Amino acid sequence: MRDAKSTSSETSPAGSVPPRPLTGAMADEVERLLSGRTRDIRLTGELRRRFDERLWRQTAKVIRSWMIWVAFVDVLTLALNAALLPRQVVLSMIAPACLLPPAAILTAVVWNKPRPAAVQRASLLLGMFLILLSVGLVGVFAGGEFYERHLSIMLFVATSAITIFSVPLAWTIAIACYALCLYLILQWHNPLLEAGSVVAATLFFSCGIIATVVARRTMNILAQKTFLLDCRDQRRVAELADANARLERLARTDPLTGIANRRWMMETLESLWRHGRETGIVAMLMCDIDHFKGLNDKLGHGEGDRCLVKVAGIIQSCVRADRDLVSRHGGEEFLVVLPDVDEEEAVAVARRIRESVEAAALPNPASSVGPSVTLSVGVAFKSRADTNVSLANLQHEADMALYRAKEAGRNQVSVFRRPPVATGQTAARRQG
């Protein structure tokens, strides 16, 4: 049904793997098949391969169980016959009966793990042929009343296999042909039946076998339809998940600059504070473009938007992409959070951001600092020892530092320093 390489993941002890997404062409094929009549469903190509992958574990388990039970029943029946039947009859049954258990067990072993399709097909068809032949020959060798009885049992064995083996239709038809041909050949040599009776009995049982094959075909088609419906549902769920992910990205992203917006930043920081995830010093940088309103008035809002986009990109390029947080805080302000840094590193990042913006030489004819766009940065810190510093406190301190940078002439970095706390006050706070 499929090769070993393609099925190894399906039989992993860890369980089934997540379904792979459908390609556009496969999705179109799924819709085409589902829009037509159920009886016309035919899986081909990649869809057929995926269907076989999905079905293999269940099919293999059913085949193995059936083979083991058939072997067990054969041995049990032979033991009961040995206890109940004449010794001469039992001895005649032993040789053909011993053909069945090895054939069934070997087939179960082959289907114990994924193998090439040709090996699986050959093992099942050869195993079924030997099993049916064994059951039929037991009756032939025993003779008398056992002749007809065991040939009927042989057809029952074939019918049960056809019914429960979810294998390709060609394999099912082959098993049916085995059973009917063996029945016809062995009955033809039955000394107790005339030729007309043999033909009539074969035709009678053929109707039942054919009906079973048709039922198996219907079951296969319904299984394929269920698979197609699952594929369509999985695709729709994936599309819905993608749409939700896009909406989530839009909700947390500033539409102009493409970086995080204020809402996402504050939610992230609140979670950080609430769960105490910070392990060292947390630095907060409040960055503001100097004389940005004048830039908009002189050059227009289009140039102002381009300035914001470029400054956002410069800030992102100056921080650690895998750890630091950058957002547009509002208007021309940007908020940067640096977790797990020391004060020296944080100040170095702030200076690098300021210098990089200045070096970009973005025009700002309205600036009193110079001909280019410049940035003022306020820096505040919180360590694990600062348990009384809330998120709002830290943000207020970064704002105050930014305000001092603006007052000092802009285009510079200002660091907020908390006044030292007396030893007695610290002890009182801890006791409180």
In words, what does this structure look like?
The protein is α/β, with parallel strands linked by helices and 432 residues long. It is 66% helix and 8% strand. A hairpin with a 2-residue loop joins β3 and β4. α3 (45-84) runs antiparallel to α5, α7 runs antiparallel to α8 and α8 runs antiparallel to α9 (195-252). The model is unreliable at 1-18 and 426-432 (pLDDT under 50).
Oligomer: single chain
Query: How many extended strands?
Result: 6
Supply Rg: 40 Å
Provide the domain count: 2
The count of helical stretches stands at 15
Strand order of the largest sheet: 1-3-4-2-5-6
**Element order, helices and strands?**
HHHHHHHHHEHEHHEEHEHEH
Overall shape: it is: elongated
The average pLDDT value, as a whole number, equals 87
